[in-house]
Amino acid sequence: MSARVEVDLEALADNLRAIRDRVAPAAHMLVVKDDAYGHGLVPVVRRARAEGVGWLGAFDVETGIAVRAETADARIFSWLIASRAEAAAGIEAGLDLGVGDAELLEDVADAAATAGRPAQVHLKIDTGLHRNGIRPERWPQVVARAAELERRGLISVVGIWSHIGEASDADDDASRAVFDAAVADAHAAGLRPRVRHLSASAASFARPEFRYDLTRVGAFAYGIRS
Ligand SMILES: *Cc1c(COP(=O)(O)O)cnc(C)c1O
């Protein structure tokens, strides 16, 4: 037995335009994990690039590298980095790396030193989901260390981010307060992240104050309810 899925790339393009209009002036990072939610990574990435999507959310480094093979100049964000070797491969491919762990930050800096070029880092604050992310009590120490690594030319802290539940407005609001405090701490430590990103499909659509600079929207781009 075999199954076929027909993917209408015109429908994807319509959805991408609708998202762009909805979240502007924030940008849209199209999340393409799980083979672009089962739609086929390569055709989705190609069409998204043709439609002007500048950021792609690739989940793990392996996917990020596969996306890089399709586009030389998009920003590609990978946030599952399992080892120093994966960090090195991500730096080599010019990926933006999500870092939610103090030890991983050291691995990334170490890999960047070997590569001879700075890693593009997005630091993740744990705003309540407790999946990963730097806990608020450790955050000031980690941003201070990141600022030091940045001054040494090993990393560039491009972003601050987190992931929220999007199941309850009250919980999301509490997460957003933690996020705002983390961004303020990062500035106080001397970091100047250009992109803050917090929301996935649901909050990006329903709650403008969650959009910041960049929205990580997957489900709604594919016509899936989140
Ligand atoms: C899957 C995922 C998203 C996208 O979520 P949707 O609800 O599909 O839009 C955003 N951010 C992270 C970290 C994710 O894992």
The ligands found in this model are:
pyridoxal-5'-phosphate
Number of helices: 9
Amount of beta strand = 15-25%
Largest sheet: 8 strands, parallel
Summarize model confidence as the mean pLDDT: 96
Whole-angstrom Rg: 17 Å
The H-and-E topology, N to C, reads as HEHHEHEHEHEHEHEHE
Number of strands: 8
Low-confidence stretches: none
| CA-CA gap between termini | 30 Å
Spatial order of strands in the largest sheet: 7-6-5-4-3-2-1-8
Q: Which class best fits the helix and strand makeup?
A: alpha/beta
Helix share, percent: 40-55%
Shape: globular
Notes on the structure:
The protein is α/β, with parallel strands linked by helices and 226 residues long. It contains 9 helices and 8 strands. It has an 8-stranded parallel β-sheet with strand order 7-6-5-4-3-2-1-8. β5, α7 and β6 form a beta-alpha-beta unit. α4 runs parallel beside α5 and α5 packs across α6. The chain is globular and about 50 Å long. The chain starts with 8 loop residues before the first helix and ends in a 9-residue tail after the last strand. The mean pLDDT is 96. It binds pyridoxal-5'-phosphate.
Q: Tags for this entry?
A:
binds pyridoxal-5'-phosphate; 226 residues; eight-stranded parallel beta sheet; 8 strands; alpha/beta; globular
